[in-house]
Amino acid sequence: MKQKRKILVPSYLRAFSCIGSACEDTCCSGWRVDIDKSTYFKYNKVKDPEMKQLFSIHIKRNRTNPTEKTYAKIDVQAHAGCPMLNEEKLCKVQLQLGEDYLSNICMSYPRVSNIVNNAVERSATMSCPEAARLALLNPNKMEFDEIEEPLHTKHAMQGFIDTNSINNKLSSYFWDLRIFSIRLLQNRNYDLPDRLMILGIFFQNIQDLILDNKEADIPLIINHYDTLIDQGSLDEILQTVPVEWTPQILLIKSLIDLRVTLGISNPRYLECHHALISGIGFTEETSIEDLTIRYQNAFINYYQPFMNTHHYILENYLVNHIFKNLFPLGSGMECMTDYIKLIVQYGIIKMYLVGMAAYYKESFNLEHVILCIQSIAKTIEHNDSFSKLALEVLKANDFHSLAGMAILMKN
Question: How many C-beta neighbours within 10 Å does residue 97 have?
């Protein structure tokens, strides 16, 4: 009898399976596919003439800082898709050699695995259309299940957290902070931007505790905020946060332009980008005053009515992001950095959805939303270079703060 292990997953992952050639996008193009060391040497022993030739031509050693995970690569961008695909966009490696010959990355995607205290957690990235549909379109609050899988299931591990680590003062409070964050984001008594604002106020408070070496007070702070949220005691503070339409437009558009300068090859993202530019009317001749008016009109007349009905979509996205990225410790002890990354993703998605809603008007629908979030996840969320540059831009312009993030959130 095979040994099994328990893993923690969002409920949607239990229903997920790859839809193969029926998928409107392919996970095998638009980025580099790394080959782990053990798989690379496994490919070197393959006798099948066709596969041996494919491996010889298209799989190259990573000569610059190779690791066990990134020992070699398939440069799918150079071939407008993975050269291992057949005409039906199915993987020849899996078809002719079997699933055991897939690399860790190819076996895993779109699943993302982390280890917390030697226990495996698994979710999915929203860059997969089918995973995005299952995760985002459920109007109920996202739940998490413990399931079993064979002990030696092959998966690439992304992050690790040891809550007993002495090197990270926050590690022992990881579960408290994560559970509080998810509970808050699923509190539908508040509008989503207000939930995000409270989350920022909370983590600014946590960051202050760290600076004062008072991490032991974190459970008390969590209980305090739970009480404030339940009693509505933060409402007055939330109402004083101004809506800054023009700075919001300028800031988010500058981040989007930054990503464009890095080069875009994904046609689905370019489709969304065209809708954004056309829907809002971004041109060099258009004044910021006119852009602000157009953006406000698009938000009020098209985006807001649609999202009021489908409010759960962005909530589910954010909850999945928190679970998948080991929030708020994905960036180590800088919990505010994790928060800023979360808000940047939210702000960019929101602007694209506003522009697309204005472009498609009454025909704007859930398929457009999935197209938007999936293509942004693939093009922006997976791009480490953009993430680093975006944080540098925010810091350089004094937006790397709660006040800066409020500009991205509030409408």
Answer: 16
